[in-house]
Amino acid sequence: MKHNLRVWIATLLALCLCLSFAGCASAKIDGGTTQSGHTHTFAEEWSHDEEKHWHAATCGHISERSGEAAHIYQDGKCTECKYEHVAHVFGAYEKTESGHSQTCSVCGKVVTGQHTYENGKCNDCDYEHQNHAFGADNTCEVCGAEKKPYTMSGDGTKIYFGEYPQSEVTEDDLKAALNIEAGGVPTVENAGKWTDYDYYISGSVKSYMWYIDVELQGGRYRGIYFTSYRPWNTTEESLAEKSYQDENGYNTNTVYWFKYEPIEWRVLERSNGTALLLSNIILDSQQYCHPNKPTGDEGRVEPNNYMYSEIREWLNLTFYKTAFNGNEQSIIETATVDNSTSSTASDDNEYTCENTKDKVFLLSYKEAKSAYGFTEADDSAREMQSTDYAKSQGIYVSTDSGYVGNSMWWLRSPGTFSNETASYVSGDGYVMPGNHVSNTRGGIVPALWIKL
After folding, report:
1. How many other CB atoms sit within 10 Å of the CB of residue 170?
2. Nearest partner of 137 among 147, 128, 129, judged by Cα
3. Alpha helices in 153-242 (DSSP H)
4. Rounded to an integer, what distance in angstroms lies between the CA atom of residue 208 and that of residue 227?
5. Which of 87, 138, 179, 426 has the largest count of CB atoms under 10 Å?
6. Rounded-to-integer distance, Cα 330 and Cα 321, Å
7. 328/150 Cα distance (integer angstroms)
8. CA–CA dist 314, 330 (Å, integer)
9. How far apart are CA 327 and CA 407, in angstroms?
10. Helix H or strand E encompassing 270
11. Who's near 210: CB < 8 A, 6+ residues apart?
12. pLDDT digits (tens, 9 = 90+) for 44-79
């Protein structure tokens, strides 16, 4: 009898427990209280997944949650539950000189880092270091970039590369100091430290005009001195009325000094990491060729044969070595120069030569007329003025209204009229098919390709 009573009591307790759970699982009235009167209890700490957070039930009802809501992020962490987002979706790098950063588009977390450079660029964000601190080995002590032997304008249309004597020195104290460094003026019998230009008078090379290069007070200067006027044609005699030197303000038996300055170049074209440059000013004044000078492999060739011309030799020897140091020369490309008839004023031009391979060259008739942005309709784009140094060499300077200060400049293409003419650009910017090759008043506007 007692045994049956215990069984009956146990069964009754089990039934009550089941009814209690059934009542708890029924619909809640409010505040976590069910219709049966059971109140859910929840953990104080937050539970979360990648999208939401909540307080989990501690009363055994795992489906119950309190305070469930989506994460609200600030710098990668939920402001409520402090969950840290890990599946970041980072956008593009934001770059400054001091470092780079990325922002997650989901949670706004910002990750910053310092640049790690390799030859001037950050390995992570490709930021290119700007404010270089170059050491004695010409590499930046910050980023390891090699010092480029040129500078480029902000808009990329101009490059400053190499140096050449350009502006006349006018300060009396500086001129006096330079004269002392030169050690006196040259003579035919004793040139001293000076170098003969080997310029022509009456068809022959004479000793009458010299130059000297001097470094002083951190600057580089070229002095010139001449005892006779350089004639405007290699075949002419030396007379003031047959020279433009005196008209340009330069007279015999006087030393003049000119400062070496960076050459400003127009960027005519870019291709595969290289750039075609054209001087933005007339740098010198030279003849295309003396009529009796050219000789080829088979004897004499025409005076307007560009391959054997004095002007080509001067560009690739005298000018090349004067204007560029070894580091600068290392980035000048050897260009294949088109000398075909199609590059001249006429497809019937009988004076053309083979293509040449040059470091420095002149533009062709066709290039100056209708390539690299030049057009027949815009002569002003071809108008050029001269440096003071070019004026001292005897270049012609226009006094015509509208073109005051302009000068002509040589092109490499042979003329079509005779074997003693070559193409040029006039002071008014017009492309002309022929000027006599012996004219010394023609300006030099060199062109070249460099590696960027």
Report:
1. 9
2. 147
3. 172-182
4. 5
5. 426
6. 12
7. 8
8. 19
9. 32
10. strand 256-271
11. 186, 191, 194, 195, 196, 197, 224, 225, 226
12. 898 888 888 989 899 888 889 988 998 888 888 888
Question: In this prediction, what percent of the chain has a pLDDT beyond 90?
Answer: 71
For tokens 């009956």, the residue is 8
Tokens of 172: 């009396």
Place of tokens 């215990």: 6
Q: Is 17 helix (H, G, I), strand (E, B) or coil?
A: helix
The C-alpha atoms of residue 450 and residue 452 are separated, in whole angstroms, by: 6
Check residue 70 and give left, alpha or beta (phi > 0: left; psi -120 to 50: alpha).
beta
Q: Which pTM value belongs to this model?
A: 0.74
Q: How confident is the model at residue 120 (pLDDT cuts 50, 70, 90)?
A: confident
* 52 CA to centre of own chain: 53
Q: Are 191 and 179 in contact (CB under 8 A)?
A: no
Among 213, 219, 216, 222, residue whose Cα is nearest residue 177? 216
Count other Cβ atoms within 10 Å, centred on residue 233. Answer: 20
The single-letter code of the amino acid at 138 is N
250 with 258: CB under 8 angstroms?
Answer: no
Considering only CA atoms, which of 82, 120, 80, 86 is closest in space to residue 104? 86
Q: CA distances (Å), 50 to each of 8, 28, 71, 87, 204, in order?
A: 51, 28, 8, 8, 92
For residue 283, give the amino acid letter: L
- Please list the residues that pair with 60 across neighbouring strands: none
Query: Does residue 316 sit in helix, strand or coil?
Result: helix
One-letter amino acid at 304 equals: N
What does the alpha-carbon distance between residue 401 and residue 246 come to, in Å, rounded to a whole number? 21
Counting every residue written for the chain, the total comes to 452
Residue-wise pLDDT for 289-325, tens only, equals: 999 888 877 788 999 999 999 999 999 999 999 999 9
